[in-house]
Amino acid sequence: MAKLIAGLGTSHVPAVGAAMDNGKTQEPYWKPLFDGYEPAREWLRKVDPDVVIVVYNDHANAFSIELTPTFIIGAADQFQPADEGYGPRRVPVVHGHPDLANHIIEHLVLNEFDMTTALNMDVDHGLTVPLSVACGQPEAWPFKVIPLAVNVIKYPQPHGRRCYALGKAIRKAVDSYEEDLKVVIFGTGGMSHQLQGERVGLINKEFDIAFLDDLTADVDRLLKIDHLEYMRDSGSEGIELIMWLIMRGALDENVNEIYRHYHVPASNTAAGLIILENES
Question: Which one is catalytic: 97, 103, 107, 125?
């Protein structure tokens, strides 16, 4: 049977990908951030998953304001890096796992999650930067990837409670898949940041650290954070953290924090990373 064993939460800052793509990771500005990624990469190499479910958001590349799915899962054989206006990132093609993806979609829809299915979907930095954070710059990604895109761009975004419940349903789906697979789930986006308006550049370290702490200490508090609180305390883009709650919901009730890295600034953003393993 397939087994979902761990989760990783990470920011997906586009400038992080650009720093890697342009050989700037050892420059004084970037080195402290990338040094903190090395333990996570070593952990992932040791875990050696067969499949990674990446929960991310599209940034108006695969979708638009005119067509905005709340939750969409990619069930294709492969996904091309998106051209975000300056050419696609020079990263490997993302290879999917259609059988497991369709199994998850069927399980979710039959259990009252109205999922959208994508058989053709380019993936932007929201997905490729987390893969680069976790894997570096390989010639090919070392595992199959199931993309799960969440609308955090256009109101109304899903509530954190719904995202957490979706994670639980994904866990049940994975557990019922008959092939012997080792699965890890990534929750991406955030942490606190705002990219426009009078508060552009907002970073709230206290909010971010409390969020990281309560992924193990008090998940119920995180599930009560509403849209207004995210915007007020973590900036207009801080609501991306609801995608980390899908990751958290897919894990056991009790988890062990394996590693944490938090760095300010990464571009104009707070960059966080956390690894959680099931106690069992």
Answer: 125
